[in-house]
Amino acid sequence: MYKMLLVALAASTFLQPVTLVGAQEMEEELTSDNFLDRIVVSAGEEKVAIDTPQAVTVLSQEDIDEAQPDTVGDLFQFVPGVSTIGSDRPMGQSFNIRGIGSAAAADESKIIMQVDGVNKFFEQYRMGSLFVDPELLKRVEVLRGPASSTLYGSGALGGVISMTTKDASDFLGDGKTWAFKPKVTASTNGAGATTSGILATRVNEAFELLAAGSFRKADSYKDGNGDTVANSDFQSLSGMVNAKFYFGEDMQQYLRLSAMQFYSDLDDTAYNQTGGMDFGITDRKVTDRNIALEYANPVLGNKYLDIKVNLGFSDTQNEQTNTRSRYISTFGDEAEYGYRTYVAKVENTSDLSFGDRIQHYLTLGTEYSFQERTSTMTTSGVTSTALSHPEGTQTKLSGYAQSELIINDRFTLIPGVRYDHYMNDPEDPSFKDNDIGAFSPKLAALVEVTDFLSLFGSVAYTERAPTLDEYYSSSAAGFRGPMPIPARSSSPDLDPERSTNFEGGMALKFDDVFGNDRFTAKVTAFQNNVRDLIESDSDGPTYYHNIAKARIHGIELEASYVAENYFVRAAYAATRGENKTDGSDLDSIAADTLATSFGVLLPNHDIKVAWDSVFAADQEKVSGAISRTGGYGVHGLSASWTPDEGKFAGLETRVSVENIFDRDYREHLANDPAHGRTFKFTLSKTFGG
After folding, report:
1. Are 95 and 106 contacting, i.e. CB atoms less than 8 angstroms apart?
2. Rounded (5°) CA angle 495-499-503
3. Which of 9, 27, 519, 683 is buried most deeply by CB count within 10 Å?
4. By residue range, what is the domain housing residue 516?
């Protein structure tokens, strides 16, 4: 009775399953369409998402393919509490998690983004923060909230976005030694086209290699009103090589090398990629490189040693020439901005379990990173450093420990602690160095009350040291239209942000509600009390200042019902934020949003059809610095045919219509209107032998 009450609303729209398949195939179908049944690998010991005492969502290769994404931001429709900010332009997207993240502030460090364990970081005025082609990814994990700071770094006030690139083994089944997968996607809005190819080979049992490339091109898109969003055209070329070498006893050890590059070269593109005001146009070349080397050794016969070593390099460069803007004195005729980051990390997990009833894992790690920030601006032949992009270096030394205790498979306790020491060294000798430490303890617990009900909660504290940008950025006096803008000095006396986050919720999971089906749901409530929140100050006297107290709280829901022939999925998030010093609303809070998907599955024919919807409420809780936005409902229809056997095995065909009713709307944290009606078609085929 209880189980039927819990899923009646979700399931009442559909007919009962009409056919049966094998138990193993059925289980695979039920879990593949259920986010909460995915294995989490980025939060410590591997575990199913619904059994993790933290809000985490796992996006698989199938999710990435179904989204037909142009950017990584297109993947997060069903991740509650996550929004893209800036614009729909691929060069202008950043992210907001639980009210943390603003295009007007240097908020990139408040959300940690990684590709193959290497931090991605870029902050420049009127630019996005991530330049990665989603076609090269196979997995994305989103960990929401500052409890992620223990393993990823202090200051993850919003959370972590962890991305993993494709491997050769993803395309090589048993006995296969090579595979080739060409793919093409066409889009009507902006006449977009994407072509990609993947070549994978297994040389022998010890060595595999993958090479992949992707080219994207699109003209300026139109919004739901039929208006062209000027200078939103785009093109990029991306490539990647991944190699994996197994060795040692039973081939348990491995070395994995991934090297990836993103390149975009556009003339007459909008200087302001985050949307909104017109800042003129420029010719822009953006290059992003990412190299990651991973060594893993789960030492056989020694449960106290499971060693991982990661070395990484990230380099993002933005070269701008022929800039035509009324703000030329600020932007320069030519400019080049860059970040280079070097990372080294060593981690070991010890199995301290005893008996069959108590499992205990202890993870100890240390990390070193060095980041170099460069900027060169030329105006009328005079070269200088941009005031809003000060040069310098940041060195970070870290140590952390996390314990996971599991008793009788019903009670999980995860304490953890981390310390990071930051050394900021500005290039300008008139600025002072800043050395600061950051402390991040946490305690999380989950209790499986019954076979279908779990309760979880956590408390996490983290400190975020100011970045080079926040310490040393400044600006000269000027005008915004007819209004004068005062000069703003650097902010060397900023205090670190301090966050205390409380989180709790419940998880439900039921099998065989009506027979051969599965229902899962996870509800999370959180409250994040932030002291000394760093915010941009457009009126001066300093470029950035601290808000003494801020509070962000909200609720998130993920739910899924999957049967043999249909599924229902929902993701809901409502967040509130307040400046506790003056009582004003925080401007970084997304509108309340509900995303739903109703789908039909025909497993015997490898067909999937889905109707997706996003409903957003009015957002009127703003300070006045940004405009209010109205609510909207946007719908889309998609269908896929992906046969895995027979003469069409390896073929993938996907068709979709996004914003099917051509709704004219703007997401609250975006500055440009969203895409109008867009038809997409994808065709790919995997060959191999």
Report:
1. no
2. 175
3. 519
4. 2-688
The three-state secondary structure class of 684 is strand
Tokens of 417: 């602690």
Instruction: Give me the CATH number covering residue 319.
Output: 2.40.170.20
Both ends of the chain: CA-CA distance in Å?
Answer: 51
Tokens for 182, please give them. 């060409």
Q: Which two tokens stand for residue 583?
A: 């009582």
Look-up of token digits 């090479």: 211
Q: How far is 492 from 432, CA to CA, in rounded Å?
A: 7
Q: What is the CA radius of gyration of the chain?
A: 25
Cβ(428)–Cβ(412) under 8 Å? no
DSSP for 210-275, written as a single string: EEEEEEEEE---B-TTS-B-TT--EEEEEEEEEEEEEESGGG-EEEEEEEEEEEEEEEEEES-TT-
Going along 476-605, which residue ranges are E strands?
478-480, 483-485, 497-511, 517-536, 544-563, 566-579, 593-602
Q: How many CB atoms lie within 10 A of CB 609?
A: 16
Number of domains in the chain: 1
pLDDT digits (tens, 9 = 90+) for 125-173: 888 899 999 999 999 999 999 998 999 998 899 999 999 999 999 999 8
Q: pLDDT tens digits for 580-601? A: 999 999 999 999 999 999 999 9
Residues with Cβ within 8 Å of residue 178, at least 6 apart in sequence: 172, 199, 200, 201, 202, 688, 689
Contact (CB, 8 A) for 285 and 330: no
Q: How far is CA 535 from the centre of its chain?
A: 22
**Its pTM surpasses 0.70:** yes
Cα maximum dimension of the chain: 78
Let me know: does 468 contact 392? Beta carbons within 8 Å: yes
Q: Specify the amino acid at residue 119.
A: N
Tell me the three state secondary structure of residue 186. strand
Phi, then psi, of 250 in degrees rounded to 5: 55, 20
**Burial class of 398 by CB neighbour count within 10 A (0 to 12, 13 to 18, 19+):** buried
- How far CA 530 is from CA of 116, 151, 289, 329, 581, in Å, comes to 30, 20, 34, 37, 11
